[in-house]
Amino acid sequence: MKLDVIKLDGGKAGSVDLDEALFGLEPRADILHRVVRWQRNNAQAGTHKVKTRSEVKYSTKKIYRQKGTGGARHGARSAPIFRGGGIYKGPVVRSHGHDLPKKVRALGLKLALSAKAKAGELVVIDEAAGAMKTSALAKQVSAMGWKRALIIDGASVNEDFMQAARNIEGLDILPSMGANVYDILKRDTLVITKAGIEALEARLK
After folding, report:
1. CATH number of the domain encompassing residue 129
2. Domain range enclosing 199
3. CB proximity list for 116: less than 8 A, separation 6 or greater
4. Could you tell me if 54 and 132 lie in one domain?
5. Which tens digits make up the pLDDT trace of 136-185?
6. Is residue 194 within 8 Å of residue 126, measured between CB atoms?
């Protein structure tokens, strides 16, 4: 499929042929859901922790005699039913991550790119480079109508461009190796440079 290439100032810069195997697939919500869930679970810290009965600071002395009180039999104040006692079956430090086959991950990325292309939310620009002021870049982004956009560049991102884009709200930049399903889907517009398309095609073929 062919798509027009534009410059950051809105001018035309020719066209580019997009690989149907990357940008022409029929989106599948089940695969995208699996990949996003895998990403978010791996990113979860899993550092939540509660104190169990053996960890709370209490005396181990029997709180009252076994018989004759008319109440239940208890051996320690650290029992879960008491205020300040240990928590029963609470969260512990653990990893929430799980495995996902590489083929499914690669397919998920292809489907995310295809979903943006099909929705008309894919923009190809000539390059994302050059030293400029943040205010000037913000005006260009606003003129393009990019409110929540992700820019994917080639193997590396131009440092001057990254510096200018750092404080623009709703604009994020990633190198091609950092392209992922979650970041692509949560933005309204996907912007890819010509170098980024070449790098993605080399990565996913």
Report:
1. 3.40.1370.10
2. 2-43+99-204
3. 122, 184, 190
4. no
5. 999 988 988 888 999 999 888 888 889 889 889 889 999 999 999 999 99
6. yes
